[in-house]
Amino acid sequence: MKKATRRLLILAMSVAMALSAFAFTACKKDDYDIVIQLKWLPDAQFMGYFTAQSKGYYDEVGLKVKIVPGGGDVSETQAVINGSVDIGVTWVSNLIAANAGGANLVLVSQIFQRSGLYLVSRKGENGLPAEGITAENYQTALTDTVKVGNWGYGNEYEVLALLKKAASRTDMTYIGQDFTMHCFEVGTSDAAYCDLASGMSYNEYLLTIKDYEGTVNHNLGVPGKYNTDNIAVLDMNDVGVAMLEDCLFVSQTWLDKSGNEEKLTKFLQASLKGWTYAANHPSEAVGHITEGGDTNLPEHQTSMTPEVAKLVKYTPAVSSAAIKAGTATAIDDKLIGVVDTRAGGAVEQTLQLAKDNFALTGTDASRLAAMKVSDLVKTKYWEDAVKALYGSVPSVSELPALA
After folding, report:
1. What is the pLDDT of residues 310-357, one digit of tens each?
2. Over 56-118, what HEC string results?
3. Rounded to the nearest 10 degrees, how much is the dihedral formed by the CA atoms of 255, 260, 263, 269?
4. Which string of DSSP letters, residue by residue, matches 108-161?
């Protein structure tokens, strides 16, 4: 029964991708003013775009927008490079890797201001410390005997940076993890088993501690087996290896075409409005997601939206403890989607971590070594969109600085 539930979840994801891809190919790209490629399946991770679509914000600026799901081996960077879509959502590390490989992609808005990647462990199980592996003890607890899981596909760079930083670790490899928390449902002799699993704060982590369909507890048939008391979290933001994740990007080739700069500004204007509304009304955003995207596991979407909102409204300078305690200060709504291009800021930290941890050779390595923040980012379009929304543009200096 437990394996069947997991298979059904994976099957549902595969069917959703296939149907959405078929629906898109059945119509022409030219039928839309903007086609945006998501990084993953159409769920709460992208609630701002679905909210903008559902509430008519794209219509307000005169744009007909198509939202295309990702997932699995779909490459959002390649889709933008080859022109099958206009705009993509990706992690900044993937954009850096693509440009090191010779692409000319441009980051135009940073939707997630902080990393959402956790490494999750079960306290005291299978030889782990009683408190699990945390930001406070990873330097000594993350030994070579600890099996670490990650999905790969460009999602592994923060994990690799952490492994390199851990004083007690010499093994820089990780176990390939599927897109569920199955690694917590199997015994230690199973090839899929891991002690420390990758999980997004708004997705896989919730599948570990909740009890609804699709969760580890549900699949094991033991409600409440894992919860916030016996599951430990290592937050990338708390150990100095946070790399920026969901951003909006385009190709310079697309941007150079007549009329596309204006379309991009209008798209950002409507999308930022959607993200602002969704981040401030996460419960309502569930309905917009269901209307425009995911209809699977609605309980999970309800759990996801408040966690996604935190990534939009808090920067990596804020500790996870302060956010959990409700004492952290959120950014002003006018700063949603801003790109922190300051010296020592979040983009520079992401780029430096990429330089320290990407295993590139030849021309790709040379391009990465020479890369600067200004090579990756153009803030003009975000600024123009914010000015259209609010009448003025706030300064990036209003963001708290990284320590």
Report:
1. 999 999 999 999 999 999 999 999 999 999 999 999 999 999 999 999
2. CHHHHCCCCEEEECCCCCCCHHHHHHCCCCCEEEEEHHHHHHHHHCCCCEEEEEECCCCCCEE
3. 20
4. EEE---S--EEEEEETTGGG--TT-S-TTTHHHH--TTS-BEE--TT--HHHHH
